[in-house]
Amino acid sequence: MLKHTEPSHSLLQQPDSRQSFLFSRLQTCKTQQEIKQLHALSLKTGNFNHPSMASRFLAFYADPKINNLDYARSVFEQIQEPKLLSWNIIIKCYIENQRSNDAVALFYELLHELTPDVFTLPCVIKGCARLNAIQEGEQIHGLALKIGFGLDKFVQSSLVSMYSKCGEIDSARKVFDGMGDKDLVSWNSLLDGYSRCGEVELAMELFEQMPDRDSFSCTVLIDGFSKCGRIEKAREIFNRMPDRNLVSWNAMINGYMKSRDFVMARQLFHQMPTKNQITWNSMIAGYEFNGKFMEALEMFEEMLSDGLLPSHVTLLGALSAVSGLAVLSKGKSIHSFMVKNGFELDGVLGTSLIEMYSKCGSIDSAQTVFKTIRQKKLGHWTAIIVGLGMHGMANEALELFSEMCKAGMQPHAITFLGVLNACSHAGLVDTGRYYFNKMIHDYGIEPTIEHYGCLIDILCRAGYLEEAKNMIDSMPMTPNKVIWMSLLSGSRNYGNVNIGEYAAHRLMEVAPNTNGCYVVLSNMYAAYGQWDKVSQVREQMKKRGIKKEPGFSCIEHKGVIHEFVVGDKSHSQTKEIYSKLKEMREKLLSMGHVPDTSQVLLCLEGEKEKEAELENHSERLAIAFGLINVEPGNPIRIIKNLRVCNDCHTVTKLLSDIYNREIIVRDTSRFHHFKNGLCSCKDFW
DNA sequence: GTAGGGTTAG
C-alpha cells in the first residue's frame, strides 16, 4: 500500500503543472501497477487532493474490473474533505461488493458532511433493500422528499423496488402511482413486488397493462409462478419469451425443482445454451432440498470437474447433502477445499460445517470447528448446542448455553430447541422444565409446537404420562403427529395401555398413514401379552394397506456408501458378512446374551424366527461389514432410518466390548456412541 | 468518472 506522505512545499505550490499529464496517463493506463505509480506520483506532486484527481483514482480502484474495495476505502480515507462524487463512488463500491451494511453506515456518515444527491439515494436505497432494512429505507424515503428528490425517476424506482423486496407492496404501489414518468424499470420493480409476495394474478394483470415488456418482466413473472407451484403457467410464459436469457432458464429450473420435477429440471439444465454458477447451485440446492442427496453431491462433483468455482451457496448445498447421507469423508474433503480456497467460516458456512460434522457423527470435529471460529455468532453457538444435544452430551450443551449467555448472546427459539432436545436425550426432566419456563419468562419467546413437542417428549420419556397428556390438552395449538407419537412411545415404554390407546387414536386422526403408530401400538400390546389386540392392529394395517417401513442401515467406506436391509444378501461381500454374523452370534451367546424379542413385529410366530429376524437386522449387517472392512482404531459409523430396537442396542453395546471397537449409530433423531460395552445414551433413548 | 429492475441461499 502506498504511504500518503506530506507533499514537499515547493511542489505543492504548483500542483497544476503536471495535472494534465497525470489526467491523460490515467485515461490510458490499464494495470493496477500503473495506476498505483500514478497514484504515488500524484501524492508526491501534491495533485492527489486536487478536486477531481482523488475521485478519479477512487473510481479506478472501485471499478468492478479492479474491484479492490479495501484499497478503494483506504484511498477514500486519505482524501481531505471528499466531494459528494467520491462518497457516491465508495458507497456504490460497497453495494457492489455485497457490503450493504457498510454502505448504509457510510451514507449516515455522509449526512454529517454533505447533502446526498440523485446518485447517492438510489444506491443507498438499494442497500436498504438488500438488508431488508425497511425502517432505514422509510427514513431515507422521507429524507429524499425533504431535500426535493421525491420526484426523481431513479429515486422513485429504487423505492418501489425496496418496498417490494421488503414485502411492503402497498407502499411500493403508492410510490409507483405517484410517479409522473414511469419507465420499464419502474414497471418491472412493481411487477417484482407482486410476484414476490405471491400475488401472481395481480402480477399477471400488471404485466398485461405494461406499455413495454422485456426479458426482465418475463423472468420476474416466471419466478413468481414457479415459486407458488404453478410451474405450467411459468412454462407458458417461458415458451412465449422471444429472448430467453440465462436468468429465465435458471428460474425455470428452480420452479421444476420446487415441484419435484427432477426430469424437467435436468432436461432444461442440459438444453440451456450457457450455464453459470447459479445454474449449478440451483440444481445442487434443488436436489438437496428434496432429499436427493446423492444427486446433489454428484452435481457438485461435476461442477468442480468442469472447472467452476463454487460459491458459499454451492458449499451450503453440498454440505447439507453430506449431512443427509453422513458421508464423513466427503464432508472432510469439502472442509479442506474450503480452507484451501480461503472461504471464511465466520458466517453460515461455519454453522453448516458444525452441523455437517455433528450429523456425520463426528462431534469432536464439530467442536474443533466451533473453537476455531473467532467471531462466534448466534448460529454457531446454536449449531454446536444442537449437535451436542443430538449426541446426548447434555451437560456440555448446557455449559455452552450458559457460556453463550455470558458472552452477551441472546439465544433465540432454535437455540432453546437445541437445549430442550439435549435435556430430552439425557432424561433431564427438571432442567427441561426450567429452560422451557426461562425461555418464556426471561427471554419473552413464545414456545412453538416444536418446543412443546420437546418438553412433552421429555415428560413421556421419563414416564410422566399424565403430566404430558395434560400439557397436550392445555397447549394453545393443535397437537401434531410428533407429539402423539411421543405420548404413544412413552406409554409403550411404561406400559400404560390406556394412555397409549388414547394417543394412538388421536394420532390416527391427525395422520392416518403413520406406519410407526401401528408398529408401536402392536409392540405395546405384545409386550403386555394382549395378543387379541395385536392381531386387531395387524388386521387394521392390512385393511389400510399400511406396511412397516423397511429398515435400512448405511455405512460409508472409502467414499462409497453401503446400504443394507433386513436379511440382505445382495452385497458383494455377503459370504464374509454372514460368517461374521455367525461369529458375532456365538460370541454374544458365550457372553450370556438372551435376545429380546419383545419388539419384533407380529408376523413372525415362533421365538426362533423372531430371534433370526433380530440377527439379520440391517444394522447388524452393517456392523459386520464394518468389523470386516473398517481399519481397527477407527470408529464404525452407521446411519439408520429407524429407531434402534432394544435388542440391537444391547447387542451393539456388547459388540463394542467384544471387538474393542467404537460404534457410532445415527438413528432418526440422535446418535449413540457405543464403547467398552456402554452407550453414550446411558440406555435412555 | 457516479444512479433504479430478475435467478441460487433458512
UniProtKB/TrEMBL annotation:
Family matches, as PROSITE patterns: PPR (PS51375)
InterPro entries membership: DYW_dom (IPR032867), E2_motif (IPR046849), E_motif (IPR046848), PPR_At4g14850-like_plant (IPR046960), PPR_rpt (IPR002885), TPR-like_helical_dom_sf (IPR011990)
Protein origin, superkingdom: Eukaryota
Residue ranges of the TM segments: none
Repeat (PPR) residue spans along the chain: 183-217, 245-275, 276-310, 377-411
UniProt KW keywords: Repeat
Ranges where the DYW domain occurs: 592-685
NCBIfam families, per the entry: PPR
Annotated family: Belongs to the PPR family. PCMP-H subfamily.
Protein name per UniProt: Pentatricopeptide repeat-containing protein At2g29760, chloroplastic
Encoding gene, per UniProt annotation: LOC107416998
